[in-house]
Amino acid sequence: MGRTRTLVLDGALGFGIVAIVEERGDAPICIAEDYQYERPILQRINNLIPDQVERSAITGVVIGTGPGSYSGVRVAASAAVGIATALALPLRESASDQALLLAVQRPFSIALGTRESLEVNEVGMIIVNRDAASPHISQEESRGRVACALVQTAGRRVEHVTLRYPAPARGSEA
User: Which one of 5, 39, 137, 147 is separated from 72 by 20 to 30 angstroms, measured CA to CA?
Assistant: First the structure.
């Protein structure tokens, strides 16, 4: 069986994960990742797959569906859906919190604005005050391992992306 080469996108951490993961049997390996976090996500994707030859080597797209940064998750999901549609590639989803926990092997938090964080551990997740939260995942800590974990935890092919948010939108409680 040939190797699969997956474009992986996730915006849950605020800085986007943009990587290419090759699946070799049971062991996904991150073969390329764009670390230029200050650049727009589409520019970063273009850095990894700049031409038709590179694009044709991609066999699928995996998107981290959150929870996490509201804007980051939405931007990454939009890019993933657009790329999968344009290149006629299968699209798979992965829960960002579960993949991140698998990758870093410790409790962590994701900033949710200026006052709150999403605390994630083996038991689940809860919204806490920022001053009581576990350390965030750093950009250096996330490299490669998170992209591989997103591929490992991705489900079957989907037609529509279902984003996960830690709490209902304000005003929707009624």
Answer: 5
